[in-house]
Each structure stands twice: as structure tokens, then as C-alpha cells.
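User: Hi! I'm working on a homework problem where we have to compare a predicted structure to a textbook description. Could you give me the structure for the chain below?
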Amino acid sequence: QVQLQESGPGLVKPSQTLSLTCTVSGSSITTNDYYWTWIRQSPGKGLEWMGDIGPSGIADYSPSLKRRTSIGRDTSKNHFTLQLSSVTPEDTALYYCARHPAWWRSGFDFWGRGTQVTVPS
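Assistant: Happy to help. Predicted C-alpha cells:
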């Protein structure tokens, strides 16, 4: 059974860097079949794709967040990470990690439960 679990601080001060980890079990993050993704949902808004990292370790980012976002991985721990710099209260959201099958046009087959991150005003 594939499981994804987000972890990280729930409160980040403005202008600091948000750092989250997604630990994966039941699937290797280096397999050629999947892209490992970060998604967030702000209060009252829809889901926002932030970026992903592929089997080669190359990351792709949302154009609107690219300047502030970095996605990495640690293959020895089978986890991937998200860093979002210079956060503001607008970055308050529920952050999810998910797996995207490479042969799917869109969508995700497994999700983490999500982790709430709050940036106070």
C-alpha cells in the first residue's frame, strides 16, 4: 500500500522559509513511473499545483511560485521536500504531497493527508 505523509512546522513567520517533507512508503521515488508533487489549498480557494520532482531528480515549478520554490529529494530516505521562501500570510494553506503517474494526462493516484501551515499577519 502506497502511503505519503507530510511533515513540518505548522507555523512559519512572515519572510521566513517554509520547509516540508513528504515521506513515501510502498513506492520508490526514483521509479520511472511517477512524479512526486506538492499541492496546496488556501482558505476559500481551489487546489494549487506548486511543482513536482521526477524520477531523474529534476523539478518543475508553477510559474507563479517558481521564484520562491525549491523541491528536492533524499533517495536514501525515500522522501521529497518543499521549500517556499519569503512567505506571507497568503501562503497560509493546507499543503499536500501526491503521486502523479507518468502515463496519466493529469491527476494523482495517492495523496498524503495534508498538513496545515499558517503564516500569521
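For your comparison, note the following. The chain is about 0% helix and 45% strand. The longest strand covers residues 93-101. Good luck with the assignment!
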